[in-house]
Amino acid sequence: MTVFLQSIPILTATADILIKQSVERNLGESDEKEIMGGRVILRKVYNEGFAFNILEKRPKIVTGVSCAVGAAVFLYGQFLMTQKKRVLEKTGIMLASGGAWSNFFDRAVRGRVVDYLAVKTKWKKAQAVTFNIGDLCIFAGALSVLAGRLLYKRKKR
């Protein structure tokens, strides 16, 4: 089980990086393609800051913080791997780690993160939000870690 869990960051980061490369090659910045029965929009958007381009004018700070947070997530993941059970937390931290690696790779190599997914909705502001699989992994991972921590604390009582 540990080997499988430890492969999650490599698999998720690799998949996201490969998809980003494909998006870079095959989509123009104004192109949009509907996929998954029209429920998801594929587009190319560059993000030079954190989520929603926060601190986009401070790329060194963004890259430094991304690196530090990614390292902290990785170290916490290594600590968790030494613990018995706690599978939900371990899975979550590995997902978050893969997403962090992928986005850090983009910042280090491209100087910006490539986002490419949007959800089609009648709310135009929500539909304008574009993200990538790495972002989804960070979000799902954070929720899994939180849920796992809550369950772990509850069982300890």
TrEMBL record:
Tell me the superkingdom of the source.
Answer: Bacteria
Q: List keywords of the entry alphabetically.
A: Aspartyl protease, Cell membrane, Hydrolase, Membrane, Protease, Transmembrane, Transmembrane helix
Concerning Pfam families, the annotation shows: Peptidase_A8 (PF01252)
Q: What are the transmembrane regions?
A: 61-81, 129-152
Q: Which InterPro entries does its entry note?
A: Peptidase_A8
Sequence similarity: Belongs to the peptidase A8 family.
What name is this protein filed under?
Answer: Signal peptidase II
Q: Which organism is it from?
A: Claveliimonas bilis
